[in-house]
Amino acid sequence: MGPQFVSGVIVKIISTEPLPGRKQIKDALAVLADVAYVDMLEGDTECHVRFKTPEDAQIVMKSYKEIQIKNNWKFEVLTGDHEQRYWQKILVDRQAKLNQPREKKRGTEKLIAKAERMRLEKTQQTSKHIRFTEDN
Question: Which CATH number fits domain 8-97: 3.90.105.10, 3.40.190.10, 3.30.70.330, 2.60.120.200?
Answer without folding.
Answer: 3.30.70.330
